[in-house]
Amino acid sequence: DKQIGRFIKALDDMGLSENTIIIFTSDNGPAPSFKAVRSAYLRGTKNSLYEGGIRMPFIVKYPKKIKPGQVNNSSVLCAVDLYPTLSRGLGDVYKRQRFCSANRKPNEKLI
């Protein structure tokens, strides 16, 4: 937590915070050795399709576009789609990559 704070402060000091996207997430569920303690006592752990294995935190800090304190309890996301989704905003960088993504535009050809 302290290092994340230092990182965010450095972005602030360089004047980059407003237009920088920071994402906090995990890789689907706690290890089985933690039992249900770290999954809010939901059934399942990592490598499981039960809720305790597939729910994950997803926190985004992007002051330019997202107001602080917003909560969304209805969206479903797949972390494998993050890279192509974020890359879409980079224009030509995205076009040079090959992606198979739900984020693709209809009839868009993969390069």
Provide the descriptors you would attach to this structure in a database record:
24% helix, 111 residues, single chain, two-stranded antiparallel ribbon, alpha+beta
Q: Give the overall shape, derived from the CA principal axes.
A: globular
Mean pLDDT: 77
Order of helices and strands: HEHEHH
Straight-line distance between termini: 40 Å
Q: Tell me the total number of β-strands.
A: 2
Question: Given the helix and strand composition, which structural class is it?
Answer: alpha+beta
Q: Please, what is the oligomeric state?
A: single chain
Radius of gyration: 17 Å
Output the strand order for the largest sheet: 1-2
Biggest sheet architecture = 2 strands, antiparallel
Unreliable parts: none
Instruction: Kindly estimate the percentage of residues that lie in beta strands according to DSSP.
Output: 5-15%
How much helix, percentage-wise, in residues? Answer: 10-25%
Q: Helical segment tally?
A: 4
Describe the structure.
- There is one protein chain.
- The protein is α+β, with helices and mostly antiparallel strands and 111 residues long.
- It contains 4 helices and 2 strands.
- The protein has a two-stranded antiparallel sheet.
- The longest helix is centred in the N-terminal third of the chain and has 12 residues.
- The protein is globular, with a radius of gyration of 17 Å.
- The chain starts with a helix and ends in a 16-residue tail after the last helix.
- The model has no long low-confidence stretch (mean pLDDT 77).
